[in-house]
Amino acid sequence: MAVTQDKPTKRTKKPEPAMGKDELLDAYRTMLLIRRFEEKAGQLYGMGLIAGFCHLYIGQEAVVVGMKHATSEGDEVITSYRDHGHMLACDMDPKGVMAELTGRSGGYSHGKGGSMHMFSREKNFFGGHGIVGAQVSLGTGLGFSNWYRGNDRVSLTYFGDGAANQGQVYESFNLANLMKLPVIFIIENNRYSMGTSVERATASRDLSLNGSPWGMASLSVDGMDVMAVKAAGEIAVAHCRAGHGPFLLEMKTYRYRGHSMSDPAKYRTREEVQRMRAEHDCLDAAKKMLEDQGVSEADLKKLDDDIKARVQEAADFAQTSPEPDEAEIWTDVLVEGV
Amino acid sequence: MATEILMPALSPTMTEGKLSKWLKKVGDDVKSGDVIAEIETDKATMEVEAVDEGKILSILVEEGTEGVPVNAVIATLGVEGETAKAAPAAAPKVEAPKAEPKAAAPAQAVKAEHHEIAEPSWGETKPTTVREALRAGMSLEMRADPDVFLMGEEVAQYQGAYKISQGMLDEFGPRRVIDTPITEHGFTGMAVGAAMNGLKPIVEFMTFNFAMQAIDQIINSAAKTLYMSGGQMGCPIVFRGPNGAASRVGAQHSQCFASWYAHCPGLKVVAPWSAADAKGLMRAAIRDPNPVIFLENEILYGQTFDCPVSDDFILPIGKAKVERVGSDVTIVAFSIMVDVALKAAEILAGQGISAEVINLRTIRPLDVATIVESVKKTNRVVSVEEGWPFAGIGSEICMTVTEHCFDWLDAPPVRVAGLDVPMPYAANLEKLALPQPNWVVDAVKKII
Question: In sequence order, which ranges of A47-111 are alpha helices (DSSP H)?
């Protein structure tokens, strides 16, 4: 779907959701992996094996998985501190992610980063950033590097509804639109910036229009529906690859758990969370579609068991991998030998 | 009585300029506000407007003349029939500006004295301004490596706010010399992201004062990511621009950030003084795979030093230079304070005190060995910086000496620093706030 840049503000027309059975099964598998991984991380946190900040992605799985299905190998991904799901969707090894959560040498950052700071050059995952909104400018820089090199890669830059109020986000919107950089800005609107609802934090009532001063093409998407996410993502990717500049996607989603593990959850009712889980869960919806398409209960059960085993393997690794050698404290401060 | 039209100062640090074009000729009538000439400074070409009314009686500086000192008489204005009495006297001075080009200039612009010894192994040198040296350093690296690019406010079409990047847009094109909006936070983050993806950005801050808007990206993103990623994701980037006081630009535009950045692991911090420092260290900074803070000084931009011409010339980051050899006291300085230290050493020499002057060149990593070796010889140390004293670079120098060669010290280490106040605007107060050679002389004499 062609999107032109010359209209002041446009909401691109809603796409038709489309995923074949095999692809949906694949998406379901990844979403389930994220769900089970995060549940396990929550358990390990409760056992004192994971410390510090730990922000779980449960409820929002359809966003990263749908976007993954819309993109290609080589496209860059960058996000905030709620990053475990993004890494798993980027096909990073759950063992390396979990071992980083426990601060062990087998972690992606050898235990020196933690939950919020993991990276994979190999998988083009650029973190994992703990300063709200900082990754938006960095992700714009990833898009810039694609523009500079003249390749057709796209930068997927994720941030939350809270970060969407940060000044540097709009400096980045300006730069990306000015230079026509291939960046997909993805607002994961889970309705709460920590404990403050979007209504209390944001004067804008429609975040998908936050790029409108620059005429940035945008879509508001049901972020609980993996097929809708993928379809919208494909439009955004095509727009960027065609050299039309950045694209803004607002993913309307919901996190079931607290902002971090230490969240008293006084800012929303239990009923609200229950209603979202019961009526809008991305896994339930995908599972129902798969069943409708003839996938057997037994097959789904086996898939679930496989994932549980994989997550348990990651949890075991994260507990048996040794702590980093004490000499590691002095490494990687600077690139040495120059 | 004829009115003298003087060469105007078009910026706080301008000491001379080129009279590029006359738009009026002798006999023309001039009204207040008329553009009478165009003047090219080291930063920009600007128009000169008449303040008084009358007829141009004489033009004393031909168009195309370079190095015309500020406040030289360039023309006279009067009523018809009047003659320009003052004219002939002023003319010779203007025609021969090279003979004593800085004589009429403010004190801070006095040409650097030639204590600096050209890098011995780099062969031929030629007089080069710091501005030219910075540009040469960047251009050489950009020719050699297509991943290196320059971005910042006014670096391209405007040719640089301080003309550091003059001509670079023409040579390298708009993809590699990029004008940004005035949004330091956003474009710094963008550059850091590009560096994480393997490019090698040079980010020009119009001054380092504005980099405070972007300091989160410099520290939290550029400096820490290598560590947080277990060595996977480095950030090969240079942040450069003028640092410290310029001249009469007030508190928000006159601050030394050396100790701010030097505090942070994950960064290298470089502060060149001479043209050779500027060229050699710029090349090293661009080639360095780590984030490098490159602190320049606006007042030094126009100063001339002998600089190696070799295209291979490069200086190592982390090595200081002994600019003047002495035996009684070690004076440690960086950036423009090297000049203050050398002037103090000259005064002290006249009083029979032999001072060794160390130009740090790099603040982080600090060349402890060179400082300690010198102090073990002189047994006394004075640090000089223009930044604030509290938790400053001087504190670090003094503590380093205390830790490494306390037993060699014959007196406590002393620091000379800018006054602990925001920079005042008034000329007399500003001068009081910044270290002068006599401050250094006094400090030395306190411990000898």
Answer: 61-70, 84-89, 94-101
B184 is catalytic: yes
d(CA B320, CA B358) in angstroms, rounded, equals: 7
Same topology, domains B129-308 and B321-446? Answer is yes
Q: Which residue of A has its CA nearest to B176?
A: A148
pLDDT one-digit tens code per residue, A254-307: 999 988 888 888 899 999 999 999 999 999 999 999 999 999 999 999 999 999
CA B17 to chain centre: 18
**Closest residue in A to B291 (Cα–Cα):** A334
Under CATH, which architecture does the B129-308 domain have?
Answer: 3-Layer(aba) Sandwich (3.40)
Q: ipTM above 0.90?
A: yes
For the stretch A179-219, pLDDT in tens is 999 999 999 999 999 999 999 999 998 999 999 999 999 99
Q: Which of residues 144-163 of A touch B (CB under 8 A)?
A: 144-145, 148
Is pLDDT at B101 greater than 90 in this prediction? no
Using the Cβ of A178 and the Cβ atoms of chain B, whether some distance falls under 8 Å is answered with yes
**Domains of chain A and CATH, by start:** 21-314 (3.40.50.970)
Could you state, in order of their start, the residue ranges of all structural domains in chain B?
3-99, 129-308, 321-446
Cα separation of A273 and A258, whole Å? 10
| Fold held by B321-446 | Rossmann fold (3.40.50)
Q: pTM score, two decimals?
A: 0.88
Pick the CATH number of B3-99 from 3.40.190.10, 2.40.50.100, 2.60.40.3080, 3.40.109.10: 2.40.50.100
Strand residues in A86-203 grouped as ranges (E): 125-128, 155-160, 183-189, 192-193, 196-197
Contacts of B181 in chain A (CB under 8 A): 171, 174-175, 178
Which two tokens mark B266?
């994950």
| Residue, of A7 and B400, whose pLDDT is higher | B400
